[in-house]
Q: What sequence folds into this?
């Protein structure tokens, strides 16, 4: 009898694990197009975000365009969950909602929280899964409570692919970051980066999270150069994915790193063809060079 129960339990767990691995997520979710102004909609969304006890930490216009807006927000439980993952987990402690105005109206989208969580937390996600699902639900309800049902877009990846994502053979994974600089201390690195960003003409701080006790800082940075920054590559790969922006760097202890452009861009534009990717072939290198300019001593 005990053996039968154990066998049944094992079969159930294997089946459950297989079903999770086969579950698919899209990078973005959106509601029906809206016909009101960007100002009205952004004000409503801000109130909706705050009603779920999230805190807005930054807003910006990608490509410096009045037709685009990204709202960045976080919450204590999200920050704690992110910090519990030592391998750059704090990168996932910010959620984003995008507004994109076209001649047809305004599209409201959200970066799918669970898509990001599986990609960044990978096989270790289980230790925080209940907290993360609650965060995911609350974030989605910001839009659904105001505008109705969400629909997915931007492609889909199964969990087993998402937790071990890379675009093509020989392309980087999440755990292949670009190491930008190592400082004598966390405090030195934090001060140096802040000074360099303020003086830069190619980047602008959208948000900054500093966790002094854990010696972790995350900077969300707009790429403002009109010839090689967002204005150059977003129209090519798809402005509708604007909630993937801004790009981040993370300072952990003495070392500042970034996700490789060939990983991060492909992750949030998973339907990119190789032909389209080749049109922005210089973009990952440009982003790396730009971030080196604000981090190298």
A:
């Amino acid at each position: 009898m005990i053996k039968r129960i154990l066998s049944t339990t094992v079969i159930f767990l294997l089946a459950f694990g297989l079903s999770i691995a086969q579950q698919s997520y899209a990078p973005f979710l959106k509601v029906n197009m809206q016909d009101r102004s960007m100002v009205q909609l952004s004000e409503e969304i801000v109130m909706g975000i705050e009603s779920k006890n999230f805190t807005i930490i930054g807003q910006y216009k990608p490509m410096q365009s009045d037709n685009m807006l990204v709202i960045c927000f976080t919450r204590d439980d999200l920050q704690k969950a992110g910090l519990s993952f030592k391998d750059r987990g704090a990168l996932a402690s910010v959620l984003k909602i995008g507004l994109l105005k076209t001649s047809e109206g305004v599209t409201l989208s959200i970066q799918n929280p669970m898509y990001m969580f599986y990609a960044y937390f990978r096989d270790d996600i289980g230790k925080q899964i209940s907290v993360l699902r609650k965060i995911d639900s609350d974030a989605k309800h910001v839009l659904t409570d105001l505008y109705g049902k969400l629909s997915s877009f931007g492609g889909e990846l199964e969990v087993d692919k998402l937790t071990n994502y890379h675009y093509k053979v020989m392309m980087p994974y999440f755990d292949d970051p670009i190491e930008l600089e190592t400082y004598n201390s966390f405090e030195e690195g934090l001060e140096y980066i802040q000074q360099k960003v303020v003086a830069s003409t190619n980047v602008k701080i959208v948000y900054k999270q500093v966790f002094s006790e854990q010696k972790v800082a995350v900077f969300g940075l707009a790429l403002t150069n009109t010839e090689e920054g967002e204005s150059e590559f977003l129209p090519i790969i798809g402005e509708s994915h604007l909630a993937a922006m801004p790009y981040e760097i993370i300072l952990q202890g003495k070392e500042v790193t970034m996700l490789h452009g060939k990983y991060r861009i492909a992750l949030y534009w998973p339907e990119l063809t190789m032909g389209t990717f080749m049109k922005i072939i210089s973009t990952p290198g440009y982003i790396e060079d730009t971030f080196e300019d604000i981090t190298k001593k």
Q: What stands out?
A: Residues 26-162 form a domain with the TATA-Binding Protein fold (CATH 3.30.310.70).
